[in-house]
Structure prediction request, 230 residues.
Amino acid sequence: AQKVTQAQTEISVVEKEDVTLDCVYETRDTTYYLFWYKQPPSGELVFLIRRNSFDEQNEISGRYSWNFQKSTSSFNFTITASQVVDSAVYFCALIYNAGNMLTFGGGTRLMVKP
Amino acid sequence: GAVVSQHPSWVICKSGTSVKIECRSLDFQATTMFWYRQFPKQSLMLMATSNEGSKATYEQGVEKDKFLINHASLTLSTLTVTSAHPEDSSFYICSAPDYESYNEQFFGPGTRLTVL
Prediction:
């Protein structure tokens, strides 16, 4: 069985602060994919990143960066110099190779105040 | 990337009526689609897997007679909430994997159902 845990249910920061959203996962599969999605108030899920289990390289995209560590089963997401537009719920998710269905974490609500 | 649409985007209905939600893959074929439900301030929970040309697979605790799924073509899956009740009010989201994109799933924009 797969499980994704996002321990932080809500985070509040002031604009320009850096913030890290934690994600810990459990799976018995050796091949799997990890995702981060952003869900703004409109509800539509916005794809941010996909990482496969064989690629532990960290990734940076603009103000966003991701730290994947298989040793701790974590896939953390950092927003640098946060902005009000970053306010949303962020979901970490896991997919294993066979079924293609996503297992979502509980989500972290990020509030960035001006 | 691939596009998945949902219709309607929101619906309000009276208790006891049935509501049909459509999920379409616009520029790719999807033999499988997934239906998720999201209650306010909660995460997305998989309800069922829709399979083209065969019966849907439901997750534990999801009533298949209440949530009817039909995947009649390679681009369309429908979810019908039968005899809807206020507790069925939720945000319903479908997704479809594009197998040419290495397990990337494409999500519809969601349907917000409110049952009065």
